[in-house]
Write a structure and sequence with these properties.
- The protein is an alpha+beta fold.
- It folds into 2 domains: about 5-160 and about 335-370, Gcn5-related N-acetyltransferase (GNAT) (Aminopeptidase); about 165-315, Gcn5-related N-acetyltransferase (GNAT) (Aminopeptidase, 3-Layer(aba) Sandwich), CATH 3.40.630.
- The protein has 13 helices and 12 strands.
- It has helices at about 15-20, 20-30, 40-50, 110-120, 145, 170-175, 180-195, 205-220, 225-230, 235-250, 295-310, 345-360, 360-380, and strands spanning about 5-10, 55-65, 70-80, 85-90, 130-135, 155-165, 200-205, 255-260, 265-275, 280-285, 315, 330-340.
- Strands 1-2-3-4-5-12-6-11-10-9-8-7 form a 12-stranded mixed sheet, sandwiched between helices.
- Strand 8 (about 255-260) and strand 9 (about 265-275) form a beta hairpin.
- Helix 3 (about 40-50) packs antiparallel against helix 10.
- The radius of gyration is 23 Å and the shape is globular.
- The termini are far apart.
- The mean pLDDT is about 90.
Length: about 375
């Protein structure tokens, strides 16, 4: 049992979300390094565009008897990891919402938040038997408390995302590149600047941002993302989400788009959101017809220079560990996704089933498929 003066109050849906605005903004302002995934304004856009049923959202507010000390957003949803519909509680998780966390816990609240939430969710046996948390950053107020759970009630998946420290000068950032990489980048920059109408664009003001957003949509959909159907422009909910961010993130931070233009068109674009001491870059794209000038790397370099020149920004979070980011030798921020049992029997059975599904069973299936593929190759060769 948690200490008696700590209490979790559950709010639901859009109305519950709005009722927490004052506490949410206070907690956000008190956080040492809030990100896009903590922003009240970003969650407002999320509810409008990425959440088909806002009533499935529950907001668990941890109070100390005086005021709210932490808020954990949870969504009740169906998961198909086991091949059947499985009801679970989960922190927000979408292609464009890749990291999740509680808002604001500090001091004692960091220690009691997860135990208090688990105690609250376990009271009603009719509710889901499992909780999914993640991807959680190591700075999360939930991270340390997870270490105190029994192995039988927890399944953890480690992960990571690249980030680049931007407190150094632009010259020092360039110094992170190898000599050959720097030579290639400088050559690509000269080739780009030699193109007719070549120009670098960084926009933040509403009118310019709205115009450049259309270029971002077009160029991001111009290559393999468009062919594979993953481009933002092809999904109205994603387009609405990113457009909404440009219009809504004003108090918690701001949005910027960095672009390269040449020959009358946009050939690369990066969408960035600035909050606290960091820049998050959730989406970028480039015109593959201009690969010879390395437009993807040039537009990333443009964004990094902007971060270095802004004294407020200390980190550029690239949201993934994509190989092409290795050019700058980024740091890696540990992340984790956890499944937590909420019921003594059914919850632990589900955790055990997930452990089998994602552990030895997955390895056996992959080895079998590899063997079958190799055997088919030998047969065809014969």
């Amino acid at each position: 049992m948690t200490e008696s003066h700590w209490r979790v109050t559950e709010y639901r849906g859009r109305e519950g979300f709005m009722s927490l605005e004052a506490d949410w903004r206070r907690l956000y302002a008190e956080m040492p390094n809030p990100s896009l995934w903590h922003s009240f304004e970003a969650y407002r856009v999320y509810l409008e565009h990425l959440c088909p049923s806002p009533d499935t959202f529950h907001w668990l507010a941890l109070g100390d008897g005086v005021q709210v000390q932490a808020i954990l957003p949870l969504e009740e949803r169906l998961d198909y990891a086991l091949g059947i519909p499985l009801r679970m509680w989960a922190t927000p998780s979408r292609d464009s919402w890749r990291i999740a966390d509680a808002i604001g816990p500090s001091g004692e609240a960091r220690r009691v938040l997860l135990p208090s939430v688990l105690e609250h969710l376990r009271r009603d046996p009719a509710r889901p038997a499992i909780l999914m948390l993640g991807r959680l950053p190591k700075s999360s107020g939930l991270w340390d408390a997870l270490a105190h759970l029994r192995p039988s009630e927890l399944l953890a998946f480690p992960d990571g995302a690249a980030y680049i420290i931007c407190t150094n000068s632009c010259e020092e950032i360039a110094g992170r590149l190898s000599r050959s990489s720097l030579k290639k980048l400088n050559a690509a920059q000269k080739h780009f600047e030699a193109l007719p109408g070549a120009r670098y664009v960084t926009c933040r003001e509403p009118a310019e941002l709205a115009e450049e957003f259309e270029h971002f949509l077009d160029v991001e959909a111009s290559g393999w993302k468009g062919e594979q159907g993953t481009a933002v422009k092809l999904h109205p909910e994603l387009e609405g989400f990113y457009r909404g961010l440009t219009q809504t993130i004003v108090q918690d931070g701001w949005c910027e788009i960095h672009s390269l233009h040449a020959e009358g068109r946009c050939i690369a674009s990066e969408f960035c959101v600035y909050t606290g001491r960091q820049c998050d870059a959730p989406k970028a794209g480039y015109d593959e017809a201009y690969s010879r000038v390395m437009p993807g790397k040039l537009v990333l370099n443009l964004g990094l220079k902007g971060c270095c020149e802004n004294p407020r920004i200390e980190f550029a979070n690239q949201m993934s560990d994509a190989e092409w980011l290795e050019l700058w030798h980024p740091e890696s921020d540990p992340l984790r996704t956890d499944y937590v049992a909420l019921r003594p029997f059914s919850g632990r059975v589900l955790v055990a089933a997930l452990r089998l599904r994602f552990g030895p069973v997955r390895r056996i299936v992959r080895k079998f498929r590899a063997w079958r593929h190799e055997r088919a190759g030998r047969t065809n060769g014969a």
